[in-house]
Amino acid sequence: MSNRHSTSIRLPMEIKEWAGNRSIRNHRSMSAEIVAILSAIREGEKTGSGFEKFANPSGVSGNTPLLEGTRDA
Fold first, then answer.
1. Burial grade of 46 (CB within 10 A; 0-12, 13-18, 19 or more)
2. How far, in Å, CA of 70 to CA of 51, rounded?
3. How far apart (Å, rounded) are the C-alpha atoms in residues 52 and 44?
């Protein structure tokens, strides 16, 4: 059984083209490239590394609830 689920997102054309070009350079499908980018951001949230600082200028951890009481404890 796969742990992957289908999700649709809307991207500005320039982001779609950038991700497509990047996926070609990295010999991945666009889906795999986006997963790799998001995984790098997620890892950066854990470690505070460089890519996360670029992708998350607020500095608020991805595990931080947006509103108090919105996530189960």
1. exposed
2. 27
3. 5
Alpha-carbon span 52 to 55, nearest angstrom? 5
Lookup: tokens for 58: 């607020």
* pLDDT tens for each residue of 8-53: 999 999 999 999 998 999 899 999 989 988 888 888 777 766 665 5
Using the 8-state DSSP alphabet, how is residue 31 labeled?
Answer: H
Q: In this structure, what token pair is assigned to residue 23?
A: 């996926």
CB-based contacts of 53: which residues, under 8 Å, 6+ apart?
Answer: 44, 59
Greatest Cα pair distance, the chain, in angstroms, is 43
Tokens representing 16 are: 């779609």
CA distance 69 to 73: 8
